[in-house]
Specification:
The chain has 435 residues and is α/β, with parallel strands linked by helices. The protein is built from 11 helices and 19 strands. It folds into 2 domains: 282 residues, 3-Layer(aba) Sandwich (Aminopeptidase); 118 residues, Alpha-Beta Plaits. The chain binds zinc ion.
């Protein structure tokens, strides 16, 4: 069976080569072996780990990524990239022009750390009180710098331009939007954009799907006349929560710790994290200007259902007997969600399979609730693909569960990320990867 596949792909390659010889004036094909990408990755791995540890030791919150940005800019300059800083906040953009004309392909990394205290077991633990890289953005930075370095050595083989966007303020959802508003995406004339987020799959495992990676997240506010008792408010919010619910009978999509579970997680075709709608049970209750405001988040997997949500909530309020008190129902937060362009996702998976160890590029079958990424704003402007990159090492007890108190990532993730995503960008910039 295996041999048959090799033979067929050999024929396919011969056919492609045959077509190309008939196309006049083509530049000679740029070819790089997967092995040489791996060697180039291995050669810089220790350096990248040192950069990651340094950034981990000096984490900076959204809007304050001064030291982080300066370090990235100096690394990119040392690689010979054109570097622009501060287009929005502490952004850093590195541009690597290939020797031949072609597309402009961007890779995005994010810079900010999280507030909060974590009992970090690392010897390179955070030196800044109450700030910590518990969402792996330090690893994202190391991977992006690694990809930039691997590609910078292949400049003469690249058709087009690679752009490395290091965006600030991801956690506050301001960075990507800010960069777009300052014209960075339009000035660079990006054709494609890619990005990855480290999460709790096994280190190096890449998971992706066409379409939405996360559920749509909406913050709902129900404004009422301030005439309800505590018991009436409780009954009303319960009614709304019960109405705004859809899930398979046995599925519990709010059990986020089961996201990478072997039987119900998003890596399983029958995952519980498919086709759901649910609302947080804890409504925030506020009285302002004589108005009672009840607010909570909801999570919906289907874009087609979004327009029906507010009317359904209004109907649920009416069904609870409080139609006369209802002022309005609105979304007070409706960020876009990450949506992968289907054709580009399939092409990216093929390139990644070629560039990565066997069985490490895998489909994703569900959508994660609670999380989102402002990479979504880039995808509204440029076709893009966002990947989950596993960062856990279950045998060593390392679980890369984002924002969790015990968040911890295996640094091998850096090596695997650099190798796979360098392969992806090389392929998108006209290089043929071969074994
Ligand atoms: Zn994050």
């Amino acid at each position: 069976m295996k041999k048959l596949i090799i033979t067929l792909s050999g024929i396919a390659l011969a056919l492609v080569a045959g077509c190309q010889t008939r196309t006049a004036e083509r530049a000679p094909e740029a070819r790089i072996s997967v092995e040489s990408v791996k060697r180039d990755t291995d050669a810089i791995y220790e350096k990248l780990v040192a950069i990651r540890r340094d950034i981990h030791e000096y984490p900076e919150l959204a809007g304050n990524e001064v030291r982080t940005a300066a370090k990235i800019a100096s690394q990119l300059r040392a690689l010979g990239l054109e570097v622009q800083t501060g287009q929005y906040g502490h952004s850093v953009v590195g541009v690597l022009r290939g020797a031949r004309p072609g597309k402009t392909v961007a890779w995005r990394a994010d810079l900010d750390a999280l507030p909060g205290f974590y009992p970090d077991p690392e010897p390179f633990r955070s030196k800044t009180p109450n700030v910590h890289h518990a969402c792996a953005h330090d690893i994202h930075i190391a991977i992006a710098l690694g990809v930039a370095e691997v590609l910078s050595k292949q400049r003469d083989k690249l058709s087009g331009t690679a752009v490395f966007i290091f965006q600030p303020e991801e956690e506050t959802f301001n960075g990507a939007k800010g960069l777009i508003e300052r014209g960075v995406v339009s000035q660079l004339k990006l054709d494609e954009i890619y990005g990855a987020h480290v999460t709790a799959f096994a280190a190096g495992e890449i998971r992706v799907r066409p379409g939405e990676m996360f559920a749509y997240q909406r913050r709902v506010r129900i404004a009422m006349k301030n005439e309800l008792s505590k018991a009436q408010i409780e009954a009303l919010t319960k009614q709304v929560q019960q109405t705004m619910f859809r899930a398979r009978p046995d599925a519990k999509p709010w059990e986020i710790q089961r996201l990478v579970d072997q039987s119900v997680g998003v890596g399983v075709p029958t995952t519980a994290f498919q086709d759901f709608l649910f609302m947080d049970s804890n409504f925030d209750t506020q009285v302002e200007g004589g108005e009672l405001r009840l607010s909570a988040y909801l999570y919906e997997t289907s874009a087609a259902n979004l327009a029906t949500l507010l009317p359904r909530i209004e109907a649920a309020v009416a069904a609870s007997g409080h139609k006369a008190q209802l002022l309005n129902v609105s979304f007070v937060q409706a960020n876009p969600t990450v949506v992968n362009e289907p054709a580009l996702t399939r092409a990216a998976m093929t390139a990644l399979e070629q560039a990565s160890p066997p069985n490490s590029v895998l489909p994703l079958y569900g959508q994660a609730p609670f999380f989102n990424d402002d990479f979504a704003y880039f995808q509204q402007k440029v076709p893009g693909v966002y990947f989950f990159l596993g960062g856990s090492n279950f045998e060593k007890g390392i679980i890369a569960f984002n924002h969790a108190p015990n968040f911890h990532a295996d640094e091998e993730t850096i090596r695997r990320g650099v190798q796979s995503f360098s392969g992806l960008l090389l392929t998108r910039l006209g290089v043929t990867l071969h074994r």
